[in-house]
Prior knowledge:
The protein is an alpha+beta fold and 94 residues long. Helix content is 52%, strand content 13%. The protein contains five helices and two strands; from the N terminus they run αααββαα. A two-stranded antiparallel sheet has the order 1-2. β1 and β2 form a beta hairpin. α1 (11-21) crosses α2 (27-34).
Amino acid sequence: xxxxxxxxxxxxxxxxxxxxxxxxxxxxxxxxxxxxxxxxxxxxxxxxxxxxxxxxxxxxxxxxxxxxxxxxxxxxxxxxxxxxxxxxxxxxxx
Length: 94
């Protein structure tokens, strides 16, 4: 049996970071880069999209994603400071 390891960042945070660093990525690219299934990646992208943090762009037959940093900062200001490390969000915004 493989030994479980833990990670410091949630899958949501990993998806956000991946999209920031690779803004022309597809779901398949994000999934492979983060290490979660495409179904899980889609669910995370939908949740972040519902909160207007990530936007989907249609380019021909491909969907790509981008981050709205103003909305991400606003999310932090809405009482989530204790849940979202300030330096992490500030690092993404810069």
